[in-house]
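User: Thanks for the earlier help. One more: Dihydroorotase. Can you show the sequence and predicted structure together?

Assistant: Of course, both are below.
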Amino acid sequence: MKVLLRAATVYNPQSEFHLQQQNILIANGAITYIGPDEQEADKVISLDGLSVSAGWVDMNAYAGEPGLEYKEDLESLAAAAAVGGFTEVLLLPNTEPVVQTKGAINFIKNRTHTLPVTLLPAAAVTVDALGKDLTEMIDLHQSGAVAFTDGTHPLQGADVILKALQYLQPFDGLLMNRPEHTRLTENGQMHEGEASTRLGMKGIPALAEEVTVTRDLQLLRYAGGKLHFSLISTAAAIAAIRNAKAEGLQVTCDVASYQTAFTDETIEPFDTNYKVNPPFRSAADAVAIKEGLKDGTIDALVSAHMPQDVEGKKLEFDLAEFGIINLETAFAVANTFLELPLEALIEKLTVNPRRILGLPEARLAVGEAANMTIFAPDQTWLPSVEKSKSKSYNSPFFGRELKGKVLGTIHKGQLVLNGSF
């Protein structure tokens, strides 16, 4: 099948056509023409504002398979990811059982062959993600683990982080950690501030993130290695990472694309679809996140896709599970709320995640396999439960107008389109 993207603006710094408007022809899964001339095709995609980039990479998403497929399985996650513009997705290891064996890695790799999205396995740092004994990370790396993290379980022990940083260095492995001092956040429900006090809820203090970032950076200075902070949310943590980068430490970080969409003062009180971890923080933290994205301190944007079934969300706020689904809305939410230039936004979905994870570049050039996302950055749309591909429906964005529409993806020879053209 031949697909023509007519007059598409290219966002791909590795391409000679970066920021140019060109016709792009894809045949049999490969790019066969880029230029101004009209080409014959079986399918033509043409509309005002048509844009294309290398396929987007998500560094933080959760699928329940195996063990918790009722929340999300690999097929439904891949379908949601493709609709959201992602061609590669890093999966958190917190399944049942935890991803910590060669068999678990191979299970994910084997399942990805027929899907329109490449699922990248992250393996647990510690056995059963309990924060105690290290897993066999060398064997897991050789089996195909892309990174190492305990995912939704923040690493607490300084000795564990120190040993992991040292253990990963012989093969240049990446340690990822969500910085949270869990003793300081115990029973916390939302950001600790005036709003939590007014609502009578136990707060999650910014301090819990900040002290953990500071400690982990000290360990990185001592041990060396590569460290990535997942889901940064506070101003002080961003400042510490900015200083560490200036110092020359190998540290990177990401933020959930939705993190500045709301603050603790603007969430709908007691609506569990606003219950995320880390929580929506203060207005000052939101400003710091935007500044960190603009100056390059924050390297990547992630979906932080965390599906929860109805029984986990339709509860009193303090009993409900944390997390929202965001694979399908990640780009639009970022494009709507972050005030980030489009070129920089796309870089944080494409170039930087691939660099951090050690993935090959995806270049839009004749002769290259097509790995691309097609989108219209100025088109508005309304996410809805009826059109969602996820098995779960825990989102505060349903029915809320967003700016930036994903039109489709082309990856592994598969074309996925959202709507007709």
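User: Great, one quick takeaway?

Assistant: The chain has a mean pLDDT of 97.
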